[in-house]
Amino acid sequence: MIFKHQHTLIECGTDEAGRGCLAGPVTAAAVILPAHFEAGLINDSKLLSHKTRNELRKIIKNKALAYGIAHVFPTVIDEVNILNASLKAMHLAIDQLSTRPEHILVDGNSFKKYPNCTHDCMIKGDSRFLSIAAASILAKTERDYYMERLGIEFPEYGWQQNKGYPTKTHRMAIKRYGITPHHRKSFRLLPEQYTLNL
């Protein structure tokens, strides 16, 4: 894994979690790491265990020069679509950075220019660049915590386990109980063989 894409500008990595979910926010994080940050086990959050992600979350928050985390909720997702909502979440996370970045590494192939800042989109960047991997860990763990808390209020949907993703349990709960204010109405919540009044 490469630490930085370039070595002359203050660089942050950004990534999101929850794009493919049926419920809950899309969550993004942005992270600026110090020059001699120790990589350790940091990698794409999807490749790490729940325990490792949570341990790394603490290390990243303690050692990062700056980080920001932002949610964009289903009402906005339904209004602007999930891609634009994901990019909005990234911008909101970058807005929170106490150190202003001069260059942004973005996981994926899409981004909207951030003011006074250059950027590069990196396919599979969360497994190639430490700052993106760190952002993916913060985004994933923050969103998981949010959905676990929300799952206490709506236990029927299994959010403490599935985090809002389209599992069979989640879809069957939608069929049985209907939707909540936390569901994304613009998404296909049930397969065609089911009927659902929105």
Description:
The protein has a single domain, classed as Nucleotidyltransferase, domain 5 (2-Layer Sandwich). Helices cover 37% and strands 16% of the residues. The protein is built from six helices and five strands. The chain has helices spanning 50-63, 74-80, 82-95, 130-153, 159-162, 168-177; strands spanning 11-17, 26-32, 66-72, 103-107, 118-122. Strands 3-2-1-4-5 form a five-stranded mixed beta sheet, sandwiched between helices. Strand 1 (11-17) and strand 2 form a beta hairpin. Helix 1 (50-63) crosses helix 4. The longest helix has 24 residues, at 130-153. The chain is globular, with a radius of gyration of 17 Å.
What layout of secondary structure does this protein have?
Layout: E1 11-17, E2 26-32, H1 50-63, E3 66-72, H2 74-80, H3 82-95, E4 103-107, E5 118-122, H4 130-153, H5 159-162, H6 168-177
Parallel strand pairs: 1-4, 4-5
Antiparallel strand pairs: 1-2, 2-3
Helix pairs in contact: 1-4, 2-3
Give the biggest sheet.
5 strands, mixed
Strand content: 15-25%
- Count of strand segments: 5
Beginning-to-end CA distance, first to last residue? 45 Å
Estimated helix fraction: 25-40%
Q: Which blocks of ≥5 consecutive residues have pLDDT under 50?
A: 193-198
- Biggest β-sheet: strands ordered side by side in the sheet: 3-2-1-4-5
Average pLDDT, all residues: 92
According to CATH, what is the class? Alpha Beta
CATH domain topology: Nucleotidyltransferase, domain 5
Sequence of secondary-structure elements: EEHEHHEEHHH
- What is the approximate shape? globular
Radius of gyration equals: 17 Å
* Class inferred from helices and paired strands: alpha/beta
